[in-house]
Task: structure prediction
Amino acid sequence: MASRREADGDFSPSLAGRFPLRGWLLLLTVCALLAIGLTVLSSAGDAGRTGGADYFRRQLLWLVVAVGAGACTYGLGVRRLRVLALPLAALSLLALALVLVPGIGIEVNGSRRWIALGAFRFQPSEPAKLGMLCLLAWYLDREARHLDRFGSGFLVPGLLVAPFAVALLLEPDLGTTALYGAVAGALLLAAGTRFSYLLLGATAGLAGLLALILRSPERLDRILAFLEPAAHRSDGGYQLWQSLLGFGTGGLSGVGAGRGRQHLSFLPEAHTDFIFAVVGEELGFVATGSVVLLFVVFTLLVFLQLRKAPDLFEFTIVCGALLFLCGQALFNMGVVTGLLPTKGMSLPLISYGGSNLVLVFALLGLILSAFRLWEAPVLARPREIGSAA
Result:
């Protein structure tokens, strides 16, 4: 006879099913994206560009750490996060607070977003994504039957997310703050919060972001450059203009790996925030189209598997991981192609950067663990999402 724990759908890891085909396809998708990113970074080193070889070597070192993080979260499993949700959220908020402490946080270009780890830099806003996800999943699972109410479905979750948003705004990092808010809003909507409440919150959030933009000449200049990139190509729209030139130069098949000029300091942050433009210049539309297609495949594979989630906690963790990964990719590609105002945000699995790479693999490990656990034989009818705990 199934235990009460099993009857509620909270199966033991020992009851996990076989690793499904979708899991293997997801891994292949990730490997393909990594290959494109490493190809661009290695071509920068082969061409003798400033820092190119160093970026490639460091990315390989971070990749080793990231694979280790993914293996740990896969072994931990998405279900064991229930007991770790509150400690992880507390540690995430502590790390975000430490960034703001002089002598601990590193200031670059007027922003405090990093903590030094020897020769490497660590960005707490990346692992804090998992902390926020765990906290939100823990709460939504507990209050699943009352999420249509204003207080329990909107006000309280908003207060739980608010400390993360405030810490990010103090860095300041408006782009990541907006990403956190968008992911949290999407998860609340999926869990059963009324759309009218979320629309109210989104309106207030956009009004706040607009006020912050109007108070900052630099941010306002970015908006004007986004609206008229050609007119601002020598000042605030320089990055976007060079990015568009890169796509135009690459054409269908690209100029060849290592032969592009955007890595030659023409395009600032070419190895991080604007690496998608370098992919377009050196490898062409075929490669950029492949990147978009691979992220679409990634999204579909996880979305189709979400139908098997046994409860709201696991659904929220996996859905949130998907939104953070592919939402950030969508945001980055929108910025680089001129569809969104310029704001620094890396392209997952392709941009240079260790903090995001480690976080991506940690989330990937949780997604793959859910894929396997959700293939387990059903010993008893699991709880439906939205039912009482």
About this structure: The first strand starts at residue 105 and ends at 108. The two ends are 21 Å apart (CA to CA).
